[in-house]
Specification:
Its EC number is 5.3.1.1. InterPro entries: Aldolase_TIM, TIM_sf, TrioseP_Isoase_bac/euk, Triosephosphate_isomerase, Triosephosphate_isomerase_AS. Keywords: Cytoplasm, Gluconeogenesis, Glycolysis, Isomerase. GO terms for molecular function: triose-phosphate isomerase activity. By secondary structure, the protein is of the alpha/beta class. The protein has helices at about 20-35, 55-60, 90-95, 105-110, 115-125, 140-145, 150-160, 185-205, 205-210, 225-230, 245-255; strands spanning about 5-10, 45, 70, 100, 130-135, 170, 215, 235-240.
Length: about 260
C-alpha cells in the first residue's frame, strides 16, 4: 500500500498583499517552530494571489522553510494574446509546485465548465505543475442527485484524456459547505472521496488511484480536521477562511498530534 503524505493547503483567495503574505508565512513558520512541530510527515502548501507568489517564493526558498506553494488559477494557453491570463509556464518559472483548477468560485464567478477545467489541468501537467482539481456539489445538487454524483461526473470529465502517470491532487469541496461554517460529516467526506478514488482507478489506473491524494475542503478548522483525517480516503484538506488565521492554520497543520487511529 502506498503511503500518501498528508497535504494541508491554504487557499488565501483574494486576501493579503505581498507584504502581508510575507509576514503571514513567517508567523506560521515561527508558530510551528515554537510548538516544536516539524511537519516532515505533513506537506504544507500556500496558495497566495498571483501578485504575492514571487515574494512567498523568495521567503520560503531563502529561509529554507520547507513549505510548498502554488497558484489559485492558471490559463489553458501557453502564451499569446490572452489579456489577464497567467501561463503554467510562468508559474513553473517561479517554482510553483501546485495550481488550483476548477474551484467552485471560478466555476460560479467566471462560468468555468468541465471542459475548461480539463484544459487547465492538461496545461498544468504539461508544464510540470500538480493540479489540485476541485470538485463538489451545490445544495440543490445534493438534494437532487446525492453527494457523490456531481463531483464524480466533474472529475471523470477532467480525467478523460489525461496522460497516464500524471500527478494530480483532487479536492472534494461541497459548495454548500464552503464558508458556511457547516462542514460535511467525516462519513460524508469519506463516502465521496472513496467514490472519487474509484473514478481515478477507472479513468487512469488502480496504481494512480492508490497514489493520488484526495483532500476535503469546506469549513475546515482545527476542531474538526482530526476527525476528517481519521478517514482512510481523506489525505488532507484545502482550507479557505481558516488559512487566513496563522494560529488556527498552524493548529490544523498539527493535526497528527490529535489523530487517534
Amino acid at each position: 500500500m502506498v503511503n500518501r503524505r498528508p497535504l494541508i493547503a491554504g487557499n488565501w483567495k483574494m486576501n493579503f498583499d505581498h507584504l502581508r503574505a510575507v509576514a503571514f508565512v513567517q508567523k506560521i513558520a515561527w508558530t510551528l517552530k515554537d510548538a516544536k512541530f516539524s511537519p516532515t510527515e505533513v506537506e504544507v502548501s500556500f496558495f497566495p494571489p498571483f501578485t504575492d507568489i514571487r515574494s512567498v517564493q523568495t521567503l520560503i526558498e531563502s529561509d529554507s522553510l520547507g513549505f510548498a506553494f502554488g497558484a489559485q488559477d492558471v490559463s489553458p494557453f501557453d502564451e499569446g494574446a490572452h489579456t489577464g491570463d497567467i501561463s503554467a509556464g510562468f508559474l513553473k518559472k517561479l517554482n510553483c509546485r501546485y495550481v488550483i483548477v476548477g474551484h467552485s468560485e471560478r466555476r460560479q464567478d467566471h462560468s468555468e465548465n468541465d471542459e475548461l477545467v480539463a484544459a487547465k489541468t492538461k496545461a498544468a501537467v504539461k508544464h510540470g505543475l500538480v493540479p489540485v482539481i476541485c470538485v463538489g456539489e451545490t445544495s440543490d445538487d445534493l438534494e437532487k442527485f446525492g453527494a457523490s454524483a456531481v463531483p464524480v461526473g466533474q472529475l471523470r470529465s477532467v480525467l478523460a484524456g489525461l496522460a497516464a502517470g500524471s500527478e494530480i491532487v483532487v479536492a472534494y469541496e461541497p459548495v454548500w459547505a464552503i464558508g458556511s461554517g457547516q462542514a460535511a460529516t467525516p462519513a460524508q467526506a469519506q463516502d465521496v472521496c472513496a467514490a472519487l478514488r474509484a473514478v481515478i482507478a477507472e479513468e487512469i489506473s488502480s496504481e494512480s488511484a492508490e497514489a493520488t491524494r484526495i483532500l476535503y475542503g469546506g469549513s475546515v478548522k482545527s476542531g474538526n480536521i482530526a476527525s476528517f483525517m481519521r478517514e482512510k480516503d481523506v489525505d488532507g484538506a484545502l482550507v479557505g477562511g481558516a488559512s487566513l488565521d496563522a494560529e488556527e492554520f498552524a493548529k490544523i497543520v498539527q493535526f497528527p498530534r490529535h489523530v487517534i487511529a
